[in-house]
Amino acid sequence: MATGRSTQHNPNPAAGTRRSRGRGIPDATVARLPLYLRALTALSERSVPTVSSEELAAAAGVNSAKLRKDFSYLGSYGTRGVGYDVEYLVYQISRELGLTQDWPVVIVGIGNLGHALANYGGFASRGFRVAALLDADPAITGNVVAGLPVRHTDEMEEIIRSERVSIGVITTPPGAAQQVCDRLVAAGVTSILNFAPTVLNVPDGVDVRKVDLSIELQILAFHEQRKAGDEYRDDDGPTEADADAEVPSAPAAAVVSTPERAVAPGHGHGHEQGQEYEEAAG
Amino acid sequence: MATGRSTQHNPNPAAGTRRSRGRGIPDATVARLPLYLRALTALSERSVPTVSSEELAAAAGVNSAKLRKDFSYLGSYGTRGVGYDVEYLVYQISRELGLTQDWPVVIVGIGNLGHALANYGGFASRGFRVAALLDADPAITGNVVAGLPVRHTDEMEEIIRSERVSIGVITTPPGAAQQVCDRLVAAGVTSILNFAPTVLNVPDGVDVRKVDLSIELQILAFHEQRKAGDEYRDDDGPTEADADAEVPSAPAAAVVSTPERAVAPGHGHGHEQGQEYEEAAG
DNA sequence: ATGTCTTTGTGAACGCGTGCACAAAGATGG
DNA sequence: CCATCTTTGTGCACGCGTTCACAAAGACAT
Fold first, then answer.
1. Nearest residue to D5 (CA, C1')?
2. What confidence tens digit (pLDDT) does each residue in A54-81 have?
3. What DSSP state is assigned to residue B282?
4. Residue B144: φ, ψ to 5°
5. In chain B, at which end, N or C, are there fewer CB atoms within 10 A of the end residue's CB?
């Protein structure tokens, strides 16, 4: 998933030393801990005292062996023959994720998405406190969103320092993202959640996670196309059967159903749809 | 990423056969294609004719060797000594992702997030057409959002069939997500983008990708905590013993219940804090 | 206590993804 | 045409993540 890897994604080693030494928890495991926590919280609310790896895995949508291995990185919190104590595990995972402390965050860019995030209950319920909403547009500043006044980005540095904000959320249009990012980092933010469809450059020691709504849809479209193509494919015919066996010879092998206009002819932008790719946001 | 995301994510094997046969493109590569496409589109708009793997990799935020390997799965579209033809590559990637065709989507749950997505420019600009906005709340249906009327979920099946919708986006509260999912699938949807913090159960052949905003923040919090704790240079300690590694930070007030039973046998230290987690959702 | 049953925790094998490093391919200049 | 330079395409090795399968550990009944 998300990514992310990201996907598990662009986790720069940060701080040099490999996280393998000591009590390093694999990134893939860390990414799943919130899933377990959510499932455990639901069990806790139903006053379920203990849960087996099999049950919890099903609730979290993962393999039970994977779940047990994940938990083994945290320590041995289970009881053989019984399972895991729900409340205890909730606490341990919360602590491991750092959710037992308060994390003030700022959201920059109060457009549609920023507005939605400000109202998102999933933040406040997990120790994340919205310290401020920021926007550069004077037409927006002053408005009250989710009970908070939208403040001007001029106040960014002051707010970050006084509130000791270390996490920033960027929901600005892509053109403004890098600049906002730079200011956040300069003011002391060391973790950024980026919703703008842009690659952010940050110094070492700063973590960036990105969420791109359109990328997820594009990945779905790929699989969807592949599914549809299993029935009948108007373009792209030759495949299967041969790919693994012999490829090396003809370079054209991969260019199977190349459209008439092979190489970027004088056709302006080569999209059938006539759709212009624009980085609109907000 | 996660996603990675993916997330890295939760790529359920789906459809039995491994995608490795034939012209299978690795999942990790598919997840990056949209990134390349975005960077290429930007170059295209600046009328840049060709680009080297090094340049494009920098623009996309990845390693150049990785980029070349990714492209090698699509075929040999580059020219040695020169680089890649921008327009041609834009077309090839678009085609591979299935973006050269029209993808009608429905968005179910027009709360804050659904509202934001309906207005999100990144969808329409890539071949995704919002066929309908749906909500179960009579107070919301009828409203016009992003130029489209919000229709009642009673019309879901009809719309999906008549518009041939195969992709659905769920932005409902978690309690309604599974039910909505079931109806979507029954009506013919085979790809789902789920924003509700719930594990969706779907039959084989249906792809689900999830985006959980709070999970991303929790992952950031983990790394942030680790950064703060690095001052201690804590070296391995097989387990417990360091449970209350209090970080020198602001007094976090979020402290509630202390379930007594929580202490599992064999673990000497208790936990002094507990936090109530609720699945609130916009 | 002892035996049986359940479930954890983990060693080991495997597969995927990543990145290095280099040969091949083509451009370019003389 | 030959030499040189640039950049692609990829073989290979390595490390991470996943999964299997099973021994160890504890609960529970007798």
1. B81
2. 999 999 999 999 999 999 999 989 999 9
3. -
4. -105, 120
5. C
